[in-house]
Amino acid sequence: MPVFAWKGESEQDFWWCIDQCVSSESWQPNMILDDGGDATHLLLKRYPAASNLIKGIVEESVTGVHRLYQLSKAGKLTVPAMNVNDSVTKTKFDNLYCPRETIVDALKRTTDVMLGGKQVLICGYGEVGKGCAAALKGVGAIVYVTEIDPICALQCCMDGFKVVTINDVIRQADILITATGNKDVVIREHMDRMKTGAIICNMGHSNTEIDVQSLRTPDLTWEKVRSQVDSIVWPDGKRISLLAEGRLVNLSCSAIPSFVVSITATTQALALIELFNAPSGRYKSDVYLLPKKMDEYVASLHLPTFDAHLTELTDEQAKYMGLQKTGPFKPQYYRY
Amino acid sequence: MPVFAWKGESEQDFWWCIDQCVSSESWQPNMILDDGGDATHLLLKRYPAASNLIKGIVEESVTGVHRLYQLSKAGKLTVPAMNVNDSVTKTKFDNLYCPRETIVDALKRTTDVMLGGKQVLICGYGEVGKGCAAALKGVGAIVYVTEIDPICALQCCMDGFKVVTINDVIRQADILITATGNKDVVIREHMDRMKTGAIICNMGHSNTEIDVQSLRTPDLTWEKVRSQVDSIVWPDGKRISLLAEGRLVNLSCSAIPSFVVSITATTQALALIELFNAPSGRYKSDVYLLPKKMDEYVASLHLPTFDAHLTELTDEQAKYMGLQKTGPFKPQYYRY
Amino acid sequence: MPVFAWKGESEQDFWWCIDQCVSSESWQPNMILDDGGDATHLLLKRYPAASNLIKGIVEESVTGVHRLYQLSKAGKLTVPAMNVNDSVTKTKFDNLYCPRETIVDALKRTTDVMLGGKQVLICGYGEVGKGCAAALKGVGAIVYVTEIDPICALQCCMDGFKVVTINDVIRQADILITATGNKDVVIREHMDRMKTGAIICNMGHSNTEIDVQSLRTPDLTWEKVRSQVDSIVWPDGKRISLLAEGRLVNLSCSAIPSFVVSITATTQALALIELFNAPSGRYKSDVYLLPKKMDEYVASLHLPTFDAHLTELTDEQAKYMGLQKTGPFKPQYYRY
Amino acid sequence: MPVFAWKGESEQDFWWCIDQCVSSESWQPNMILDDGGDATHLLLKRYPAASNLIKGIVEESVTGVHRLYQLSKAGKLTVPAMNVNDSVTKTKFDNLYCPRETIVDALKRTTDVMLGGKQVLICGYGEVGKGCAAALKGVGAIVYVTEIDPICALQCCMDGFKVVTINDVIRQADILITATGNKDVVIREHMDRMKTGAIICNMGHSNTEIDVQSLRTPDLTWEKVRSQVDSIVWPDGKRISLLAEGRLVNLSCSAIPSFVVSITATTQALALIELFNAPSGRYKSDVYLLPKKMDEYVASLHLPTFDAHLTELTDEQAKYMGLQKTGPFKPQYYRY
């Protein structure tokens, strides 16, 4: 299996690599496993002949899934596609536990900062924000949260965190973490008011959440402390540490646990197998959510790691609940 | 507004009360707010004329919602119905935080038991089990969990609880709590092996989870310790405390926080208003989930209790996210 | 064994009861087990003949111990006395875990308040404050703490609680708990600024911490909500709930776990036995701390409750550590 | 100020360095700040003339303090010495919070292991064990503890951890951490029974706790995974990761927070100043504990980091408590 990728690719390199993947003369892809939708896009658009031989697409990113739904709506999706981004084993594991395992690690590896008693402001209380907040509370930090969605805000209150606006606490925050999926959440005006020694990093989406560009002005001096750590110096001597230049700090400065990767990869592999093996007619040229039963299967494959022992329903219990003894155990809309 | 209900109703009383509600000569209901589906059932079946004047049904229980979907499937639902049981503000607040607030309270009020260091077995890690486990961990108990669903089991592991079968730990458990929604989860055979002084109670569904009937045998003696607490004595002198005769221990022996009730009641009220005011044609004779925007509105009404301050999207941010600034903020399938 | 005590004793009754205990014609006490030092005081002062037959005094309260040290200093202590108040199994169990087990219980039984997301101000971060803070954090409250001692304040920060002055947060506090051992910690001026619906209670010392007297003014109305709960109404309609009229809320409104009582009672019993059996000369007429080995013995007697299994030192390990294999395992000044 | 030390010193180098410190011709030390007692030992023994000019010794290690007490007992201590090892700001901060901040960090930096749901066995529940247990519970690990001291074991139970013997859980442990201060706590026999993939490390004392020597046998293969990480391979293919060859894993593989170092260093500096400035006669040639007031002063200097605001006693309150308004606030034996 040839691989086309290297660290430090340019944009041009990036597209060349994708092109190599889908258009090699020596092989013919029959399934696409994509993360972002770029391979899908290129193949469908530029190689219509090859795309006719594709039996299915598996996509795991928010962006890629969004594109697939648009294609489907426009009637331009010509093969079945599986949205694994919204499977439970993705949204409630990768998105929640991975940040919980990595945020403290990323902060420690880059700054060696003590976290007990530190005032931390987390922007966003989705799965990522929830994971970060739990981890930081666990090491004795005092956590504040900003939210736009009243439901997540109410969860946040019940979980014991104060819901504030950035302006309420920006002057006292020791550490600021973005986890919103949005852009310009932290802007120059905020950073101008932070105290010296504060640390800023992003756990959310791409490199858009912190307006890093606004820090590249002549009055501020950037000092590289070490790889992935810049100390920005204000004219009055104030210093703020910016991690990974605003890119995802856990991908840049920590290590994603292989267990979490395994869950997501297993989900993708099962989705590929399902689409490839499905009898003709089971899937049309549309976007599908992973069948609940496969989600459950992925989870069950990972339980032995924990010496976990499942309980089996008796026949009477299964009947009483209206369930098959082998699952699925929950309706499709169950939230976990 | 006449109310027909009293504590200690017989089954016959119960149906008489419902009949009074729907069939009074002096008034004519035009909306049904139901919890379990019995009023709905009676009206539709026995008072077809009156049911023609009903503009909508709001139902908040699992059972009632199940019946509505069956009616709809059978083409027998003649009015629009709103399933508020599956709104976020119900499933992720009432089901999760209410047990977290009440399980310790119920155990303390009935038994004055110290919880630090106690070994607690919780059957089920749905929302109710999650709430109980979090509360008991918070007071220093050692928590074990049983599960049938591998996804919930995996969450349980990641949350730091050992997933076991009942038989693995039944001999060492100090407290056993059921939270499965199923029947015969704890049977005589299990209780025969528990140690003296153990406490058994149910936080789940009805009074079916513990096989209480199996304890009513001549070889066991029941001693009433106080209201809602029975000490069951085995021939060898072993004693087990059974709370509320296996009925929901938090409803029987604790107090549900008014805040949680307020969230659910607000949801119901909004659903009634929506169905009543909706322009003709917006809802057909089918079962609907509460619109996400109403869920968010219910949450926003409860934030001032916590001095919580929401952040507002800028125009650019809303556009970037493809959202209205006033919500809804998440897709319908978002899990929270 | 005759007992002289009843609920609702007057001050006069109280002294009559103590007098009966120490001066009965039909018996002659030879040991004193005291909690507060009043029996000791009466016997030594009023019954010198009887006090000559006393072989030892065991005292478990701060106040009583204080009096004994004063007697000793003044050369007026005529028998050996054991200070069990400062044994580890008292200060680090009774003082810490008992509040942790009872504060939430006391709040729930009296007010049914939901604790998730509530802002709680605890005055004092000694053992009692630490126990309350841990319990309330465990149920999702947001905890603030006041302290006079910089060491306890620093512990508090590291444990993840914000150290404030009362004035910093009094307007936003939902619940105010005193745990200082001091007097007039919460005064009228503070309560005038609290928000309506707030709850005030005392977990510390006697009934001195909250200036309850300052609330008995003509402009405020007291409404008895239920036993141990008063609603104080301000002229503008603001209401504050005062629990147990400022007396210890866990003693008044909760139930002390029998396990904690057992630890303390065992300590007292062992101290009595030690003083009674000690060969002449081991103890002089002075105040002694409980020997470390007895503290360890008390702890070891309570481990089976938890299925806890101790590890035993090998001969080599004991030698390496300079310890006896049977303990004591720590120097007298070890802090645990 | 000349410094004599480098990474990777031999034993001989080590003593040469110390000799240079105390015997330089170009300077004359008048105070000793020691960590382990080696400089003190060398100076007193080999340079009696120089030692006569020493005004005081400050020692911060268990071992060094032990030696000083022995010298004092033997009447051979010729200068006043301060035991800062047993100051509160050392035992309850450095010993407790430093492990809490560093154990997860050390495990992540060396092995990238996911900690959620992992079964961790900690040997010892002193301050170090308490810190490790709290940190690991905070990230979702399931923690078991071994103890020899029944008091610490009882604390452990009340804190929600199961007290076991190594043999009870060695087969299921994913991670084993020693924190006892003892030797041969983990021996070959234990490691032979651990499961493949398990991780072993030491947070306690020197490199004695794990019998590393017992792993250097011909049947086992050592593979260096990276700096400070060895994979030991059993004949059947089982692999165990040993961190830092059994030396202190947080010193070897993590970074001690500068804040914790600051607390300890400040304590040492104040002790030096006190001994140097003390009027003749205040200290004799004996070992002294740091005065409580200095401990409090060290703490107060570190509170601004947390925006912590101390409360000041009123005159009446100070009088009621029998305290000076400026402290000390607790008796010498107070445990915190």
UniProtKB/TrEMBL annotation, chains A, B, C, D:
Assigned keywords, A-Z: NAD, One-carbon metabolism
Cellular component GO terms held in the UniProt record: cytosol
Taxonomy, superkingdom: Eukaryota
Gene3D superfamilies: Adenosylhomocysteinase-like, NAD(P)-binding Rossmann-like Domain
GO biological process, one term: one-carbon metabolic process
UniProt-listed PANTHER family: ADENOSYLHOMOCYSTEINASE
Family statement drawn from the similarity comment of this UniProt entry: Belongs to the adenosylhomocysteinase family.
Protein name as it appears in the record: S-adenosyl-L-homocysteine hydrolase NAD binding domain-containing protein
Cofactor(s), names only, from the UniProt record: NAD(+)
Annotated S-adenosyl-L-homocysteine hydrolase NAD binding domain residues: 95-256
PROSITE patterns: ADOHCYASE_2
CDD domains xref list: SAHH (cd00401)
NAD keyword on record: yes
Pfam family, one: AdoHcyase
